[in-house]
Design a protein that fits this description.
There is one protein chain. This protein is an alpha/beta fold. Helix content is about 40%, strand content about 5%. It contains 16 helices and 5 strands. The chain has helices at about 20-30, 40-45, 55-65, 75-80, 95-100, 125-140, 155-160, 185-210, 220-225, 225-240, 270-275, 280-285, 295-300, 300-305, 320-340, 350; strands at about 10-15, 35, 115-120, 145-150, 215-220. Strands 2-3-1-4-5 form a 5-stranded parallel beta sheet. The radius of gyration is 22 Å and the shape is globular.
Amino acid sequence: MYANGSRAQPFLVIKGYHMGSAWFEEAFNKLPGVSFFFEYEHCLRDLAPAGSALAPVMLTFRHLQQSCGSCADQKRTTRCRACGVVPPPDGSRLQLATAGSTAHWPAGAAREAPCVATGISFAALGGPYLQHLFALRRLMPTLPVLVHVRSNLVKHALSYLRQACPGEKNHVTKAKERARLYVPPARLLLRVRSISYAQQAMLRRASQLTGGAKMHHIVYEAMQADLGAELRRVLRVVGAVPPAEPPPTERGAMVKAGFDDLRAALANFGELDGVLAPLPCLPKMLHATSPQVFPLKACEAVGDVLGEQRKQPGHGGLNLSVAREMARVEDFDRAASSTRGARPKELSPSNCEGRAEPLDPS
């Protein structure tokens, strides 16, 4: 029960990276009577008691029970605790710092709209985090679990690759003119393979949490096509009544940093078009000029095809020289990581300016 006398529906979103999830948080929190916290796992690290990796599950439980408001102007450790309503966990640095003080935890700020839904997302799904979420589900067995996915693997891969270039970000508030990139085919395919595997692993872990029950997918491309409709779908799925109007557009709101038509983004679009032609799903993803939702299950096969290239170069019709280059790039990255302590950037300065460049053999 909230300070304003309403009862809200909590929900959990399992997600990967570069999914538009910060954009989702910003838009969702503009709706009346809702609250959403992006990547709540940071809270668990920030508020962990001494000697523990994560805060106890009761922090997450109480946040979902009592939160209604993003309190975006406050410190993260305040926002992690339902805008300061929930006391910090015993033994955490914050609790030790305030022990014995006369500070009291507020009862919660009044809101004009009744609180109807409050959610959190998790991207970190390693052992301790997954166990934390299993414990949360035991405390909240009816907690709706949703998954946030991105169906265009080519554009998803490019969102990673272009971050090697100066000034490139995925969260922006103003569109800008940018140079076209030269993307080495092997680099693109290795990143597509990586995100395909990561997304499949994320879906498997989410399925574990729900005991195999069907889950609603928040789809990045559906958000692009009609953000208001996708947010209303989420509210209906979690059992809350959606508002009649979409979230307001405000100055400073996030905008898409990538391109709809990749011909405008890629200096070697034609080369990539030829390389991707024999592979499942990827050619249509490359050519998509507007938001399009691709079938996740049907397009899983591309990860498997790319995963076989080291053992069977040219498997699935992939150009043999590109398949061998994938193995060479992968070996180069592994060697550089072990000798330099860091993985090389996926695009070189020349690539960022639209020019091809041989792989540095040193």
